[in-house]
Write a structure and sequence with these properties.
The protein is mostly helical.
Length: 183
């Protein structure tokens, strides 16, 4: 199996498993969360087995999925699971914002230095855009889970957040091209 297929499955497989189990079992979060947590942990193990390291974002997401999934089941309170995307996105925004004070350069530059070459101004602008995006997604998640049905929120989480994220990433291409370092 190709590495790109494995990468895709480790990134989106757990979410797909959650979605399928949730809808096949009468829209029950208590039934869908355990396989989601297990699939997430299995994905992290596969990533580690292949790369001998786990990138920060999947590791952070995996820890929070496990923690909030566990809290949801232990306390029998779905609010923990609803708030997980909010917490994840606020953590990512805070890390990008405060990280620059500790590293004296944008953390995105450190994370992607081997795959993307940008001028410092480009890294700075891209970092701020990601910070704003993570905050936007956190607020959007809060609005959706607090005002809509659980089924709507699950669909939004799977079919709304993903396209929004892809559109945001695509919208950053002009900035990245403008500040790209050509060797």
């Amino acid at each position: 199996m190709g590495r790109s297929i494995i990468k895709f499955l480790t990134d989106f497989g757990p979410l797909l498993i959650f979605f399928i189990i949730y809808f096949k079992n009468g829209h029950d979060l208590k039934i869908a969360i355990p396989p989601f947590v297990l699939a997430t942990l299995l994905s992290l193990a596969i990533i580690y087995f292949l790369d001998k390291k786990i990138p920060v974002m999947p590791l952070t997401s995996g820890i929070i999925i496990t923690l909030f999934g566990g809290l949801t089941l232990y306390f029998d309170n779905k609010i923990f699971f609803y708030m997980k995307p909010t917490v994840v996105n606020l953590i990512f925004a805070a890390v990008l914002f405060f990280g620059k004070f500790f590293t004296q350069k944008p953390l995105l530059k450190i994370f992607f230095q081997n795959s993307i070459k940008l001028q410092n101004e480009g890294w700075k602008k891209l970092s701020y855009r990601w910070i704003y995006f993570f905050i936007f997604i956190a607020v959007l998640n809060e609005l959706v889970w607090r005002t809509q049905t659980e089924m709507f929120w699950v669909n939004f989480k799977v079919w709304g957040l993903l396209p929004i994220s892809f559109l945001f990433i695509a919208s950053q291409m002009p900035l990245m091209n403008k500040y790209k370092i050509t060797e």
